[in-house]
UniProtKB/TrEMBL annotation:
Its EC number is 2.7.13.3. PROSITE patterns: HIS_KIN, PAC, PAS. The lineage of its organism: Bacteria, Pseudomonadati, Pseudomonadota, Betaproteobacteria, Burkholderiales. Residues 79-128, 206-256 form the PAC domain. Putative oxygen sensor; modulates the activity of FixJ, a transcriptional activator of nitrogen fixation fixK gene. FixL probably acts as a kinase that phosphorylates FixJ. Keywords: ATP-binding, Coiled coil, Kinase, Membrane, Nucleotide-binding, Phosphoprotein, Transferase. Residues 2-47, 129-199 form the PAS domain. It is found in: Cell inner membrane. This is Sensor protein FixL. SUPFAM superfamilies: ATPase domain of HSP90 chaperone/DNA topoisomerase II/histidine kinase, Homodimeric domain of signal transducing histidine kinase, PYP-like sensor domain (PAS domain). It is an enzyme of class 2 (transferase).
Amino acid sequence: MEGRNLEWLLAAASDAMLIADHSGNILLANPALCSLFGYEAAELRGQPVETLVPARLRAAHAGLRSGFSAHPRPRAMGAGAELSGVHRDGREFPVEVSLSPMSADPPLVLAIVHDITRRKQAEAALQESEARMRAVFESVTDAIITIDEFGAIERLNPAAETLFGYTEAEAVGRNVSLLMPPGDRDRHDGYLRHYRATGERKIIGIGREVEGQRKDGAIFPMELTVTEMWLGTRRMFTGVVRDISQRKEAERENRQLLQELTSANEELTNFAYVVSHDLKAPLRGIGSLADWLATDYAPHFNDEGREHMRLLINRVHRMGALIDGILQYSRVGRVKEARVAVDLNRMLADVVDLLAPPAHITVEVQPGLPTLVLEPTRLQQVFHNLISNAIKYMDKPDGKVVVGCSQQDGEWRFTVSDNGPGIEARHFERIFQLFQTLAPRDRVESTGVGLALVKKIVEMYQGRVGVESVKGQGSTFWFTLPAGGRPPAGAQLQETA
């Protein structure tokens, strides 16, 4: 009856169990064990327990079994060495076995077997995760410092050792204030006490710039981010430190450059006023005197004298225009104008009307130009200079200038085309430089500022400018503007007349 009760108990158990005799032969295997190893109970009865052990481990297992039989004692689960079991299909898996001697004559052994595959997989995953974290901790370029809730250093990664000059062995166990300037040390200890007492955060989770101190006493600026974590019941803090000495030096240099640039702009502004007043005043006097001579002494001049007077007056006017052009060029990007919605159709009509092209030149503005938000005077200067140049250099009896626009690749592309003399490709870059002209100055009045001004204004708006031309057939000057300059619905349009 006792044996039948034992057999019933084993059959009802959810754990895999077997009973073996003193020779290691299986007397009884419950359904859970049969399911675990893939056998029928009748197949295991009378077989040595090594049947459930991989062949390569059976000899060693037999020795362990003999040692247990000689000195039988209960062995709790997990108290012994980890073993491997083998399924009937040959698949091996890790198992943990607890053994209990049973009072019988001859003696018997009860074995409880647990499949620990999932635990082993979890342990392997944990070890892999730890290895990855260790690799990150060891290789990351930022300094990482781990302390306990009382400020004692527990870990320094290699980057922190290099940054502060301490080895991990030198720093572990010492207060983290070791890495701070003297003035910050007492405040840090007080902050930790205050945080433990109140939970009020001042640094944790908030990146901030502070100062650190190296082993050699050097103080340097650093960026610090602190995070809090719990390991069981232990509260830990991890600080990520980045040396920002180079960034601070760059910021200092930038401030100095900005100050120098501001000073240079002020000097340029003052220079512009000097040019406008001190140079143009005597120039106006020379012009007035030349006009008076040309008028009152006209009968006394021969043809050569009259030509010289014409050249003098033209060059005075050119000098005045050159000064005005330089002032305009210096103001671009320095003197700001309010950006408003500008209807380019209306603007181009005003520009053409202002230029009043001669009868033999037709200026055609293609319809449907966009409305953009920008500084109206600046764009008016661009179109004025391009159309004015096309008119000024026209060498055909039936001249034509066409202004067009298209949208492509996220930008507006504007063109001013003419059927004039054209430009050789070798001059394409030169003509956009300041004071550069291709025609003799005494034949065509030009300061050489217009296209340089166009280039500067367009690039101020992050656009591009260029020219396409065939000698003797004409030229197409083009420039681009970002397409994001459309006005919002209902925006007030700027009158450009």
